[in-house]
Amino acid sequence: MILQTVAGAWSAGVGAAVAPESAQQALTYPALFLLVAVGSLVPVVPTGTVVSGAAVIALHQSVPAPSLAAVFGIAAGAAFLGDITLYSLGRRGVASRKGSRWLERLRAHAPPERLAQAQDRLREHGVAVLVTSRLIPAGRIPVMLACLLARMHTRDFVRGNVPACLAWTAAYALIGILGGSLFPEPWEGVAAAVGLTVIITGLPGLVRRLRHKRTQTG
User: Fold this and answer.
1) What's the confidence (pLDDT) of residue 5?
2) 186 and 57 in contact (C-beta within 8 Å)?
3) Of 80, 86, 212, 216, which residue is least crowded by CB atoms under 10 Å?
4) Does residue 21 lie in a domain region?
């Protein structure tokens, strides 16, 4: 969707023919839902970047408010659906003596030190930790795994995950709105939003690697 969005915005910027807004929305909304839902299940798709890019395009519609509301609702719903599906699959693995490939995938994305931190925060703050986990880059999977290992009921997970998905969507949509409002052309706003989300999501991992390297050399 980001590639499609950037390509469409670039064509508009150079004066090429652009599809009507209704046609753009008919393509963008299903793609947004699919990418965010799949990205929540398989944590390799940069879902935050997808939401920010969609918000930029919505901001440049002739009537931006309904488009932004649609982006927010679709992205939040897709994130919640992906999370609850992944949690349900993980619960099956916890309940099974043999585990499951989904549970193993979660473990693979949750280093032991991050998992231990998530378990400590879960004991201290309960389901409220789910909200911050989605706002912290690479924080969602360790907290979800901590909830699974603590055998948290799905009902309790949902209670914490609903505000988490809403807050996450609002944060990345705001990045897109800021990027789109700074530049007159949609493709410029998309580029700014993508760059900002890449920095936000990549910086914590870089800091951790530098600290780990200093610890080893020290």
Assistant:
1) 43
2) yes
3) 216
4) yes
